[in-house]
Amino acid sequence: xxxxxxxxxxxxxxxxxxxxxxxxxxxxxxxxxxxxxxxxxxxxxxxxxxxxxxxxxxxxxxxxxxxxxxxxxxxxxxxxxxxxxxxxxxxxxxxxxxxxxxxxxxxxxxxxxxxxxxxxxxxxxxxxxxxxxxxxxxxxxxxxxxxxxxxxxxxxxxxxxxxxxxxxxxxxxxxxxxxxxxxxxxxxxxxxxxxxxxxxxxxxxxxxxxxxxxxxxxxxxxxxxxxxxxxxxxxxxxxxxxxxxxxxxxxxxxxxxxxxxxxxxxxxxxxxxxxxxxxxxxxxxxxxxxxxxxxxxxxxxxxxxxxxxxxxxxxxxxxxxxxxxxxxxxxxxxxxxxxxxxxxxxxxxxxxxxxxxxxxxxxxxxxxxxxxxxxxxxxxxxxxxxxxxxxxxxxxxxxxxxxxxxxxxxxxxxx
Amino acid sequence: xxxxxxxxxxxxxxxxxxxxxxxxxxxxxxxxxxxxxxxxxxxxxxxxxxxxxxxxxxxxxxxxxxxxxxxxxxxxxxxxxxxxxxxxxxxxxxxxxxxxxxxxxxxxxxxxxxxxxxxxxxxxxxxxxxxxxxxxxxxxxxxxxxxxxxxxxxxxxxxxxxxxxxxxxxxxxxxxxxxxxxxxxxxxxxxxxxxxxxxxxxxxxxxxxxxxxxxxxxxxxxxxxxxxxxxxxxxxxxxxxxxxxxxxxxxxxxxxxxxxxxxxxxxxxxxxxxxxxxxxxxxxxxxxxxxxxxxxxxxxxxxxxxxxxxxxxxxxxxxxxxxxxxxxxxxxxxxxxxxxxxxxxxxxxxxxxxxxxxxxxxxxxxxxxxxxxxxxx
Lengths: 415, 377
Prior knowledge:
The complex is a heterodimer of chains A (about 425) and B (about 375). Chain A has about 425 residues and is α+β, with helices and mostly antiparallel strands.
């Protein structure tokens, strides 16, 4: 078992696993149809290198392990060294390899293995690893104070927030997405392991069942309220819109972030039980879509454009004034859009017999001050859905641009 | 079906409309032939058909003119069945409208969005004729509940004045003693109070829920003054505003037209309040008098159910007995936490007791959530 390559040994079966995962969530929809002909051994590797980091417009995978970390050293060189090690490990793992060659079982018997091994028999599963830098990293520890983008300010307090400091903030974040949960967990676990002595985990979140589609090749999944989520999301195919709403452009702020983005993470607890006791009509009024097809109220099919001007009896708007899709719509927000990439979560129960469950909201935007913040302000103030949800965690990160074959994460910031 | 014509107060009407438009799951378009197309120009309004079967009709309106236009479907007397506004030249907009009754309707395009528009007759055939209105028992139910709201409102105003006087005279102990018992009257009729957009936040907003620029007023502001920060320079002013807001609320609450469905949803809504706010101790952050509110929510919920009782008894006796049992169970748990004229403070409860409350409230909420459906039958 020397030189175990997860790809070489398990590539073919791996593709099958990917399909099963996608099909299970999509109900044999577009995902299945489109990926079936390409079920070769290479389709489940997402390229690591590029202008932008993978894991942003990559078609949303099925599972998430997200970790926010604090840097425990004040040694800038040590931090840079870690980022280099992380980048190398990420290159390997996203390619379906162990974190180091001969990592899990090929090394010295007297030493702990270099790779934790739980992903040995698994394919790459479209693993992407995406890193971000929190506002707190830009203090006086690493000489970064002058490099903090103005848009990387702490998010303001939103009405009805009930934030837990133990689920908020962080100097760094790692977003691992994969079509196999164990592959995502393996990746974060090994990066955290490499970081011991330099970083420590502040909080982390597992997610299952992507709750948005980020590509037209995907069917729209359902969130834990049973509604289709992400119908109107920005899609990977919308390159012009991505340039306008997601990617930081040169001149937006400090040069080091050009080609990057801002990641907002919000842990949204859903009051599942009260929602489940709410009538179908009210649920549809709250969302602004029908539960079955996902059609906007007043329209016939899911992808019919949302029309906020349709009225019913008496001319009253069919999509209510406080409906979620109205308040979150670009039309209502002067054209503001974001790329959502959230996941469902169930963290057991809350000790009162209720599910500790909800949506781990992740979004990418070019400037949170003009995109996420006004959107969330409108929602927390007026959204009828606020009665059924509670924001319990919050964090903002600047996501640096992608790296080339010899580069490392954060090179433009530290280099 | 009879309920649809009841004048629903505020949220009700919109909800019911969509109930009819969407409850069938997948929507069908007219006569399986796809949408009815409408070609709107500055001078014309060409509708592809002038007849359709009753049910969900989908119109697809294309504006081929030069002016922004809108499209309407009117029933007799120019009652709007559905409309779509703001269709810019070149755009196509769709709307799906439920038209359950046979009859003669009118289509209209309004180039420039003014005037009566370019009209044409539109005939709808088939469809069930709706029964005449006013089920007597449901009407009795809403009347009975309105009486309850009126009596609670009167008591609320009286007690709020006394509470405000205590605050204004600087008698902190007296004000603290009056705080929870006064709120009881508010918590009992909260679903009604919530129908008045700005008043409920002014009276009952929690500090954590304030929006940017929103002033912290009402009961919880005074709660904070009394229990946490001590009376402030503007406490008396806040007390006066509270009395003024409650006075307005009481006048409106007594005049409100409620539907039987409002009662059913209100009964459930009050228990939701308990489940997400009271059981977690979030409502009374400073005074910890959450159990007073809990009892009041339970009272209000039960009052609405009792008003509906004759109807429910007739339509679903098993549901009634289940609801009765679960109400009793919650009450028994609450009774065990009584202290003097009131209750223990939330902070005195053990985690186990909180869990028991949550479980009992769930057990009650589940059958309560089915009441609306029975009422709407």
